[in-house]
Model the fold of this input.
Amino acid sequence: MKILVLFDVAHPADPNETFSAEALKEEDKPTEADVLEALRRLGHEVETLAVFDDVIGTVEKLKAFAPDIVFNLSESFYHDRAHEPNITALLDLLKVKYTGSGSDALLLCKDKALAKKVLAYHHVKLPHFVVSHRAHPLRRLRRFTYPAFVKPVCEDASDGICRASFAKDEKEAIERARFIHQKFNCDALIEEYIEGRELYLSVLGNHRLTVFPPREIFFGQVPEDVPKFATFHAKWNDSYREKWGITNGPAKPLPEGLQDDLTELARKVYRLLKIRGFGRIDVRLTPKEEVYVIEANPNPCLAHDEDFAQSACMAGMNYDSLVQEILNTAVA
Done:
């Protein structure tokens, strides 16, 4: 197939510039490089398109190359992640097929509070939560269970999540919410902190959904009395991960029967939030074997060494086969 790999960059770019895998790695785009190399190994005719702020140039490149499908790896426009759904909306208007979720799922999941309200309506088990609106910040938290966990409503990839996100009482929760209002210029989600294991459930497909074996984040060197959760550094800072023995890997053994429950839960959340193509559902498993949905991620990271691809590998699907299957779901 003729495939256009679409991704964003943090600076103006010529729509007609072609990127090699090596050039993408220099741009700190390892996922894009991995996907590009896989597509070429699979024998597809591949072109690249980097977007920053040029709508007209993007449309012209799409018309000129006329791809059978766009492999969509874009996350921002004008270097602003709030515009991520607009890219897929543009592709829909141009009647171009693309991989991954559409603007409906991206809009819904980007607003973490709204996504949680949808799931709560359908009786999905969630941490208790409230929203502190930037225009009208909360001053009190009535009948709230502590400790609390505070994060931006509309950020991705654990942006805005650090040790200070863990709040022991009302004072700390309100202070952290106000910091988020000022730093990120957005609403803050204040939710009950759920102690337990953090599991990642990777889902592939549109109608018939495949749920891969769960992955887990481990905090090997973090002291027992320190809360354990995936901060920005815990996810993306290699030296920080090495210092604290933080690793991701196959989930440790689960209680009997829980694997099937997790599979059905992942499928339910995936469908309720209109995710398609591929997605990841993050959950917490408490010592009492209760499962809480923490977050849903349409179009999660596809780098070959990240959780989604590694989860597929655990199920016997190598990286090239995974990339081809994502294409197949988009065509279908």
Summary: Residues 36 and 97 are 18 Å apart (CA to CA).
